[in-house]
Write a structure and sequence with these properties.
The complex is a heterodimer of chains A (116) and B (113). With 116 residues, chain A is an all-beta fold. Chain A is built from no helices and twelve strands. In chain A, strands 2, 5, 6, 10, 11 and 12 form a six-stranded mixed β-sheet that branches. Chain A is globular. Chain B has 113 residues and is mainly beta. Chain B is 0% helix and 51% strand. In chain B, strands 2, 4, 5, 6, 9, 10 and 11 form a seven-stranded mixed β-sheet that branches. A four-stranded antiparallel β-sheet of chain B has the order 1-3-8-7, with no helix packed on it. Chain B starts with a strand and ends with a strand. The chains are: A mainly beta (116), B mainly beta (113). Chains A and B meet through strand 5, strand 6, strand 10 and strand 11 of A and strand 4, strand 5, strand 9 and strand 10 of B.
Chain lengths: 116, 113
């Protein structure tokens, strides 16, 4: 089974500062990688995903993540955060093979808090 | 709007009771999965249905069961509720079973007292 480690449970930053949310996963085989965002009292929203191809993926609101196969990492970055980015961020991995097809394995989440 | 609707939004049940949670997916979404998110945790996979058949199950006991219907709706049933079943239950759907990015509902907050 896959496991996902989000190294920081809470990340406080000031508005307009850069941020990196770290994510490592356990398997070195081909996987799909995702970042989801959860606002208070809401479900999960897909932020970005890596399936194949370019190792750098971007979202429409300025986030980006880079797939690093050798380090089994998929860190999320944003060069300048806004107060509206305050939310819980979850890294997830999916193994597109066999009996676990489609299943998402989530990390425990990172609470990003942006201060004015 | 996510396209996946869950009901009810909140629910309080007593230990030992049974509960049914409902999910309505987008038209054409043949895959539906259910996740349990305990407070302060990431979501945990319960099971997945593809074209009305269960095709994957996580580490949950048999008292967690589900159904998927032809009209893209689905149910999660939990029997003999325990206090530890208190959580946010999330439904997620996708066009196919490969999961190129699920669409999640807003969840049902279940409290067992």
């Amino acid at each position: 089974a896959q496991s996902v480690t989000q190294l920081d449970s809470q990340v406080p930053v000031f508005e307009e500062a850069p941020v990196e949310l770290r994510c490592n996963y356990s398997s070195s085989v081909s996987v799909y990688l995702f970042w989801y965002v959860q606002y208070p009292n809401q479900g999960l929203q897909l932020l970005l995903k890596y399936l194949s191809g370019s190792t750098l993926v971007e979202s429409i609101n300025g986030f980006e993540a880079e797939f690093n196969k050798s380090q089994t990492s998929f860190h999320l970055r944003k060069p300048s955060v806004h107060i509206s980015d305050t939310a819980e961020y979850f890294c997830a991995v999916s193994d597109p093979r066999g009996s676990t097809l489609g299943r998402l394995y989530f990390g425990r989440g990172t609470q990003l808090t942006v201060w004015p | 709007e996510t396209g996946v609707t869950q009901s009810p939004t909140h629910l309080i049940k007593t230990r030992g009771q049974q509960v049914t949670l409902r999910c309505s997916s987008q038209s054409g979404h043949n895959t539906v999965s259910w996740y349990q998110q305990a407070l302060g945790q990431g979501p945990q996979f319960i099971f997945q249905y593809y074209r009305e058949e269960e095709n994957g199950r996580g580490n949950f006991p048999p008292r967690f069961s589900g159904l998927q219907f032809p009209n893209y709706s689905s149910e999660l049933n939990v029997n003999a509720l325990e206090l530890d079943d208190s959580a946010l239950y999330l439904c997620a759907s996708s066009f196919d079973e490969l999961n190129y990015g699920y669409t999640f509902g807003s969840g049902t907050r279940l409290t067992v007292v």
